[in-house]
Prior knowledge:
The structure holds 2 protein chains of 2 kinds. By secondary structure, chain A is mainly α. Chain A has 2 domains: 6-57; 69-303, MetI-like (MetI-like fold). Chain A contains 12 helices and 2 strands. Chain A has a two-stranded antiparallel ribbon. In chain A, helix 3 (81-112) crosses helix 9 (214-230) and helix 5 packs across helix 6. The longest helix of chain A is centred in the first third of the chain and has 52 residues, at 6-57. The relative contact order of chain A is 0.14. Chain B contains 10 helices and 10 strands. Chain B is of the alpha/beta class. In chain B, helix 3 (108-118) packs parallel to helix 6 and helix 6 runs parallel beside helix 7. Chain B has a single domain (10-256), classed as 3-Layer(aba) Sandwich (Rossmann fold). Classes of the chains: A mainly alpha, B alpha/beta. At the A-B interface, helix 7 and helix 8 of A face helix 2, helix 3 and helix 6 of B.
Amino acid sequence: xxxxxxxxxxxxxxxxxxxxxxxxxxxxxxxxxxxxxxxxxxxxxxxxxxxxxxxxxxxxxxxxxxxxxxxxxxxxxxxxxxxxxxxxxxxxxxxxxxxxxxxxxxxxxxxxxxxxxxxxxxxxxxxxxxxxxxxxxxxxxxxxxxxxxxxxxxxxxxxxxxxxxxxxxxxxxxxxxxxxxxxxxxxxxxxxxxxxxxxxxxxxxxxxxxxxxxxxxxxxxxxxxxxxxxxxxxxxxxxxxxxxxxxxxxxxxxxxxxxxxxxxxxxxxxxxxxxxxxxxxxxxxxxxxxxxxxxxxxxxxxxxxxx
Amino acid sequence: xxxxxxxxxxxxxxxxxxxxxxxxxxxxxxxxxxxxxxxxxxxxxxxxxxxxxxxxxxxxxxxxxxxxxxxxxxxxxxxxxxxxxxxxxxxxxxxxxxxxxxxxxxxxxxxxxxxxxxxxxxxxxxxxxxxxxxxxxxxxxxxxxxxxxxxxxxxxxxxxxxxxxxxxxxxxxxxxxxxxxxxxxxxxxxxxxxxxxxxxxxxxxxxxxxxxxxxxxxxxxxxxxxxxxxxxxxxxxxxxxxxxxxxxxxxxxxxxxxxxx
Lengths: 307, 261
């Protein structure tokens, strides 16, 4: 009786189609995910292999303890400290811009801005985020540096301060949008409770909403700064190419990323120590940003309030 | 049967109050007297505007954009909706406890002390926090763990913490917006007992869905109902006993007896 049912026959073929479709689509999305993992693994593998070559010639102790980075000029020395210092100097300077402004923008957008202003401001921030980093680089070099030179007479054209400040501007949208998400996720009932006790909007924002969203805000800062560490073009153009163990912001420095660019564009022979050194710098950079991103996500998980 | 109305001092006088959310009229020409040291219950079916009315008393409706208020609420001889009045001041005098417990993600102590801090209290914080927690019948349960996070408390305890938080700044009036709707029966009884004790010192207005609760805790009951245009009106207000035994209006009787809800 069932076999005679016409409808059921249609259903059966349909079911078969659905089954095949499910398998094919599952395979396609699965392999897409697999490819990204494969790419990540092969990048790490490549970095590790080349830097092993580097560390077979240069001791890891020299790499971390020497305070001079001179991969080409004799006497050659491979102390990573100046590059790390340069990287962190730019990052710290950028945080002085990005953290307060990013937080203020987020508080404004999440707590204060009326809908129509929010509708204008958000896309503007997205435009800021969409500017190519090389444009920021020339903005730093040809606009901000001359301005800063009016204040600091003895400032070098290529310097950490200008690059750091512009880097801060560059990561504002990143920090503010993550922070805004954290603020918005604070339930309205907490704001209402605060207002009902006679708190002003400012008190509510600063004393209730921001602390309640703190884990997300801290994570936003960490992720923003991790971006600053990985950023390349801006610092290559504006911060200089002088490995320099200094925390003086008006001096010329070189960041880890900028060094990699400089050497990769140069004429270092494939397989030479200086060529392999970019992989050693690269893997350290990878470890630093990976650690910061992990820390950011950990902060969110560990300190998040569940409402 | 007539029940004598006790004459009490009026704490809040509502005069021809209408509330609009944009073009929608949520409440129409409400007039009522809220008496001092009495518990006034606002009852009525969902959407009749009882919570809207409650939020008018501490100007919480100001927080929603496009809200427009007509009419007056007289408190302490002043219209709280007059231009010169800062809603922030009103809210420190007229406290509120919400439907769902909403403690701040801070310690128990800091939850109670928050209102004192933002209102610029100078004096012994420990004493005030203790007093508020005793008043809300929570002190014995939390006195050894004041620095614990408020989320470590049970739902009923959290709600009493929210009461303590409101009481800490010594308001005159406490607004309760369905304070037990998220609580279990035992926690509900505790809150109701608390309301009975607190009315000696405070004027209390409670919105409730639960008519038994209104009958148990309140002295006065106001029945609100929304008409065909979904606009809430005050049908009648009287001594609770009278509303629940011999209401004046037929709508009230229908609602009380459960003919609609």
